[in-house]
Specification:
This protein is 53% helix and 5% strand. The chain is mainly alpha-helical and 284 residues long. The chain has a 3-stranded antiparallel beta sheet with strand order 1-2-3. Helix 7 (131-141) crosses helix 10 (220-230) and helix 11 crosses helix 13. It holds the Pfam family Phage_int_SAM_1. Keywords: DNA-binding.
Length: 284
């Protein structure tokens, strides 16, 4: 669509994962179609009004979508209007002042990090579990965001024999260094590095293509289903990350600075993450 020209390239430069970008673009295409039909003409970006955004969200809510899902759609639209303003396609970005009432119940943490730690050996050594599923599990357990997991390349890792060292610059431009010393984890990462060489591309969580540099995301439903069958509770990357942060803070007693280093994030990001942890873990 003409109205979305340039947006995909912009978002990729911003560090969005290819999988998330697909979802975002589909939502924005639906939004543009909706506002054009509503106004009975093809609008220019500056012609879209807050009432158009509100009507679109009302339509989505009427489908019976959960408030959290509608909120994510609103977030995508906010991001799009910020882009339009940055490139001069709209004189004013009205979205920062746009309000839309949604009642969202705050989730309560269900996962004790130790429950998954006890299953780590079984998961990482399982003979039929996909290698990518093992990698998602391994990195989520180390506090990685989904978008960082999918940016990992074999060049970010050094096989030192008894350990693997990671040197990685995150999407927040933070240098993140971790050392994996557990022999089981080392074996999984080295296997992924060797696979990348065989497939002649550098992605660690790689596509199913034998050759070619293009990243193709795995079917996450298959990844999550495979892991959930082996674990005492459903596997969700962000929930595992939140449980890990809680464990670092409350169980392991790590200092704020130690947590910043271990998680590869800025201090302000850790403050926000801890706020979320406090909300979900009422027992803190």
């Amino acid at each position: 669509m003409r109205m979305l020209y340039g947006y995909e390239e912009y978002r990729l430069k911003e560090g969005i994962s290819p999988g998330t970008l697909v979802t975002e673009l589909e939502l924005l295409k639906s939004f543009v179609r909706f506002v054009n039909l509503r106004n009975e003409k093809q609008l220019e970006p500056y012609e879209i009004k807050p009432a158009d955004v509100r009507a679109f969200l009302d339509q989505e809510k009427a489908k019976g979508l959960k408030p959290g899902t509608v909120k994510r759609k609103l977030s995508h639209i906010r991001q799009y209007f910020h882009y339009l303003w940055k490139v001069g396609k709209v004189p004013v970005d009205f979205m920062p002042k746009f309000e839309y009432q949604l009642v969202i119940e705050k989730p309560v943490a269900q996962l004790d990090y130790a429950e998954f730690v006890h299953e780590k050996k079984k998961v990482l050594q399982h003979p039929t579990l996909m290698l990518n599923a093992k990698l998602y599990f391994l990195f989520a357990m180390a506090g990685f965001r989904m978008r960082e997991i999918e940016r990992l390349r074999s060049r970010h890792f050094r096989d030192l024999g008894d350990r693997v060292e990671m040197n990685f610059v995150t999407s927040q431009d933070v240098f993140w260094q971790l050392v994996f010393e557990d022999p089981i984890e080392v074996a999984v990462i080295v296997q992924a590095m060797e696979r990348a060489v065989f497939r002649e591309h550098d992605y660690l969580i790689s596509s199913e293509k034998k050759y070619g540099p293009d990243y193709v995301r795995n079917n996450m439903k298959d990844i999550y289903s495979g892991l959930t069958l082996l674990l005492p509770k459903p596997f969700k990357t962000e929930e595992v990350r939140i449980a890990y942060i809680y464990d670092l803070y409350k169980v392991q007693g790590k200092s704020f600075d130690e947590m910043v280093e271990l998680l590869g994030i800025r201090p302000a990001s850790l403050t926000s993450a801890l706020k979320l942890v406090f909300e979900r873990y009422n027992k803190i």
